[in-house]
Amino acid sequence: GDSVTQMEGPVTLSEEAFLTINCTYTATGYPSLFWYVQYPGEGLQLLLKATKADDKGSNKGFEATYRKETTSFHLEKGSVQVSDSAVYFCALSGLTGGGNKLTFGTGTQLKVEL
Amino acid sequence: GAGVSQSPSNKVTEKGKDVELRCDPISGHTALYWYRQSLGQGLEFLIYFQGNSAPDKSGLPSDRFSAERTGESVSTLTIQRTQQEDSAVYLCASSLLTALPTPQHFGDGTRLSIL
Fold first, then answer.
1. How do residues B49-74 score in pLDDT, each as one tens digit?
2. Which residues in chain B are contacts of A87 at CB distance < 8 A?
3. A89 at the B interface (CB within 8 A)?
4. Over the Cα atoms of chain B, what is R_g?
C-alpha cells in the first residue's frame, strides 16, 4: 500500500538557518503530494502541494519539488523564523475508489530558537 | 463560520461508554474524511464519505466504530464500548470532489480521553 517516510524530529535550528525536512513516498500510480503544518494548539493546515512530477509547491517561503525519479518531496526554507516552530507532515493522495484519502508521514517537529 | 467545525472539542469518558463525535464540513464540500491522530500511530485514515455514502471504510479499527453522514453535510463518528486505546484526537476534513485530489480542510479535532 501507499506509505510516506519523513525524517524524525525534533529538528532544532537557530533563526535564519536553512531548513530541509526529508520526505520520501511509496505509491502506485501518480499521487499528489502535500505538506501540512500544525502550529502549537492549532489544527492541521495545508502548507503547499504538487500534483505532478517536477511541480514545485511554494508558500510562506517554503518550497518542495515533486521528484518522481527519487520518489521524494523534501521541504525546504532558506531562512527560518521562530514563528515557523510547528510539526510538519508530508502526505500523499491518490485517486482511488475511496476518494482522495491522505496517507501521512509521522510528522517532524521543528523548533526554531533565537 | 467558513471552516470545518467539530464538536465537542474535548471529551472525557469512562471505559465502556459510547461516544458520538460531530463534524460540520465546509458548505458545498461533497467529500468528507475522518482521521485519528494518536501518539503511537500518527495520523491514520478512518473513513471517507462521498455525499452520504461511504465507499471506503477501510480505516475503521473495529466494528465498535461506525459513522454516518446526512444531507451531504453533518457527519457523526460513533465509538461503542470505548477502550483506552481509543484515546486520540479525531480529525474531520472536507474537500471538493474533482478529477484531481484537492486540498482537504481540517477541523480542530475532538480530543477523546478514555479513563
1. 999 999 899 999 999 999 999 988 99
2. none
3. yes
4. 13
Q: Which residues of B touch A89 (CB under 8 A)?
A: 43
Per-residue pLDDT of chain A (114 residues; tens, 9 = 90+): 889 999 888 999 999 999 999 999 999 888 999 999 999 988 899 999 999 999 999 999 999 999 999 999 999 999 999 999 999 999 999 766 557 889 999 999 999 999
- Look at chain A and count its residues: 114
- Cβ distance A100 to B55 less than 8 Å, yes or no, reads no
Query: What cell numbers appear for A103 in the block?
Result: 496517507
Peptide bond into B101 cis (omega under 30): no
Spatial separation of the C-alpha atoms in residues A93 and B102, rounded to whole Å:
9
Are the beta carbons of B42 and A107 separated by less than 8 Å? Answer: yes
Q: Which residues of A touch B44 (CB under 8 A)?
A: 104
